[in-house]
Amino acid sequence: DGSYESPGEEDEEIPWIIWFCGLKGNEFFCEVDEDFIKDEFNLTGLSAMVPFYDYAIDMIIDHASPGEEDLTEEQQHMVESAAETLYGLIHARFITTHRGLSLMEEKYRQFHFGRCPRVYCGGQAVLPVGQSDIVRESSVKVFCPKCEDIYYPRSSHHKSLDGAFWGTTFPHLLLLSLQDVNNPANQINRSKQVYVPRIFGFRVRRKEEPQQAQQQPQPQITANASQATRRADPNVRTVGNNNDPIDLTSV
Fold first, then answer.
1. Closest among 109, 166, 104 to 133, alpha carbons compared
2. So what's the pLDDT on residue 13?
3. Any residues with CB less than 8 A from the CB of 154 and at least 6 apart, and which?
4. Between the chain's N and C termini, which has fewer beta carbons within 10 Å?
5. 162 close to 135: Cβ distance less than 8 angstroms
């Protein structure tokens, strides 16, 4: 169910990172290299952002913490929660490295993050993105490189993930790195198709949309000339073609 429970005795040999990334709902995460986590330079500033930092880092890299057995059950749950948050923040840094981008690119190409729900994007693969780099400000969204817009993930499990665990930079950095590769398959053309609402075939004009006549002044026709035209051709219609908008603001 994706809840945070420590592995059972039969799972003791499974590294914490593999166990965590294998939980249902954590498919957007990749497995951060342990060497990256052990390099203190990569963790600069995180100790002030996460409670029980030392216990949390030891849990992530499967090291026994001194005094761990003295923690109460409530404190143990707090350490587990802190480990999840800490791993997410480390993950956001890792996926902007060459190694992290490579792992996430593989997941992207296999549609692990889903597809764009927009019809005119034709099932384009999406990438996870955060609207903020600060934890607990917004949940993770998915970014479509074809329409360049963001959407809520389809799975309810993913909607509860913190967007800071992917950050605001990752998807754009990955797409930029793909452009440097001389491979036409990596080129994504932005979708130019836009859905046009119509009523009985006529395009609907929004209230804030200026009148077409104001945008493109038409030559004036005198009443006599207009009457002469109708007499010459009784089949002439003055409503306009199907691309002319209907003004519904006065209805």
1. 166
2. 78
3. 114, 117
4. C
5. yes
pLDDT higher than 60, residue 247: no
Closest CA relative to residue 19, chosen from 9, 28, 7, 10? 7
User: Would you give the DSSP letter of residue 51?
Assistant: T
The reply to whether the predicted model has a pTM over 0.70 is yes
Q: Please give the Cα distance from 139 to 234 (Å, whole number).
A: 62
Give the number of other CB atoms < 10 A from CB of residue 186. 13
Q: φ, ψ for residue 87 (rounded to 5)? A: -60, -40
CA distances to 27, 30, 118, 145 from 122, rounded to whole Å, are: 23, 26, 7, 12
Whole-number pLDDT of residue 18: 96
Does the structure show a pLDDT above 70 at 232? no
In 3D space, the residue among 25, 152, 163, 173 whose CA is nearest the CA of residue 85 turns out to be 163
Please count the helices (runs of H) and the strands (runs of E) in the chain: 9, 6
CA-wise closest residue to 158 among 127, 120, 123: 127
What residues are paired with 144 via a beta bridge? 149
Whether 97 and 36 have beta carbons less than 8 Å apart is answered as yes
Average pLDDT, the chain: 84
Report how far apart, in Å, the C-alpha atoms of 68 and of each of 10, 26, 46, 50, 73 are: 21, 26, 21, 17, 11
The string of pLDDT tens digits covering residues 118-163 is 999 999 999 999 999 999 999 999 999 999 999 999 998 898 999 9
